[in-house]
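Folds vary. Our protein:
___
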Amino acid sequence: MFQQVINTWIESKLRVKQEKAIIKGLKAYYIKTGKGPSLLFLHGLFSHVREYHRLFALLQNHFTVYALDLPGFGPSQQPPRPYSVEDYSSFVLAFMKKMKIKKAVLMAHSAGGIVAIDLALRHKEKVAKLILIDSAGLKHKYSTPDLFYQIFVVKALRELKHSKDWRESLSLIAGIGYDLAVHPFRKNLWKSISKNVNVSYEEKLCKLEVPTVIIWGKNDELLPLKNARKFRSLIKNSRLVMLDGNHDWPLLCPEKHWKKIKPKII
């Protein structure tokens, strides 16, 4: 029931159905919408692609947008063992091969940024541009319970506050209920999160060779603005765009910032 309500909402917004593919033996769900150069989007922790429908509605006018629910997130099957960042990166690469994407703009939010960075480092030929939105990837100490509260609970309350009508609120409540029902039983997902929660690519960022755009909310309470400036100093071919927003602006109000970020990503 939860899944049906969520899918109905996203389909009404993007006029596209969530599709299924078998990637590395796992059922993976994704969205494909729009026309133009390929853009592959990676979601954040305790999240799934449907939460970003507002952002996709803007991007689909300029790109063919692929948005993948990583193993263990959304309806995608959980990994058969605890996954490392490299495992998730290899999974994304396999997805690109399955979709016959030769090269793509790689956009990632929050924890998805670590996977995107790893992919860009190991397969620069597959990445036309790297767009990091309030990204993880630097040295930062978190406990899994703290992350669960900050990313899952606080984010859920913000989403409800920003919903525009009862249908969107119902969809969000359904999504929260679905995640609460599913996530606690995905043991390999939790082990994956615990394994990667404090992974840092700080020492490797100087090796990034793809053009990189760093977009950051000035009021990000989870990953502070100083992280954005550090990314900018460590990645050679990069530029920083600062916005008046918090960590979840790409989910809650991308329309507000579209005029400023559009020239940097198109």
The radius of gyration is 17 Å. The chain has ten helices and eight strands. Strands lie at 19-23, 26-33, 38-42, 64-68, 104-109, 127-133, 212-217, 238-243. The first strand starts at residue 19 and ends at 23.
